[in-house]
């Protein structure tokens, strides 16, 4: 008789040891996180998989590296805002190219070592950005080599770069 009770208790133990329903863990995963800061549009960005803006951004940097002004003109909008280390440029495409050529004239053997990039689009499709990370190496007119790490955030309008925010990390000599 004791054996019969033992046989009845085993299925009850197995049933009691089953994992909890997945609905509880799924609900926890889909609930919005509670961030320590409040912003207007949290989690507003999606990865842009079209690669169109990424190609324009990389071609813009390549055009500077090789001083291909025809390609550079195609990459930037008619009006450009460029925030860079210790300066701000606001002007036309032609003025921007003139400034880039002047800056490049002080650097010989300019070489870009690209590290990474990411393109994002706002969920409302109003903003498109590409961020690139790279190191630029060159030799100055006195023969001294130098390098700077850059992060460029580029805002796109109509498939061209309309604004660029550049952040620089200078290495200690």
Q: Any key phrases for this structure?
A:
173 residues; 7-stranded mixed beta sheet; elongated; alpha+beta; Nuclear Transport Factor 2, Chain: A; 7 strands
Description:
This protein has 173 residues and is α+β, with helices and mostly antiparallel strands. It has a single domain, classed as Nuclear Transport Factor 2, Chain: A (Roll). The protein contains five helices and seven strands, in the order ααβααββαββββ. A seven-stranded mixed beta sheet has the order 1-4-5-6-7-2-3. A hairpin with a 5-residue loop joins strand 4 (108-122) and strand 5. Helix 3 packs antiparallel against helix 4 (69-75). The longest helix is centred in the first third of the chain and has 15 residues, at 2-16. The mean pLDDT is 88.
Give the CATH architecture. Answer: Roll
Biggest sheet layout: 7 strands, mixed
- Proportion of residues in helical segments: 25-40%
Number of helices: 5
How many domains in all? 1
The separation of the N and C termini measures 88 Å
> Could you spell the SSE succession in H and E letters?
HHEHHEEHEEEE
- CATH class designation: Alpha Beta
> Overall mean pLDDT score?
88
Helical/strand content category: alpha+beta
């Amino acid at each position: 008789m004791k054996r019969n009770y033992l046989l009845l208790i085993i299925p009850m133990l197995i049933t009691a040891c089953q994992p909890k329903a997945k609905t509880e863990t799924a609900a926890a995963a889909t609930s919005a996180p509670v961030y320590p800061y409040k912003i207007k549009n949290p989690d507003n960005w999606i990865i842009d998989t079209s690669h169109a803006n990424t190609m324009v951004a990389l071609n813009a940097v390549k055009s500077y590296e090789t001083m291909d002004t025809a390609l550079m003109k195609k990459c930037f909008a008619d009006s450009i805002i460029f925030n860079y280390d210790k300066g701000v440029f606001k002007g036309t495409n032609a003025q921007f190219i003139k400034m880039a050529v002047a800056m490049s004239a002080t650097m010989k053997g300019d070489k870009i070592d690209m590290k990474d990039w990411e393109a994002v689009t706002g969920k409302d499709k109003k903003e498109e950005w590409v961020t690139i990370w790279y190191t630029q190496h060159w030799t100055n007119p006195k023969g001294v080599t130098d390098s700077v790490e850059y992060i460029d955030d580029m805002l796109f309008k109509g498939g061209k770069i309309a604004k660029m925010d550049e952040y620089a990390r200078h290495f200690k000599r």
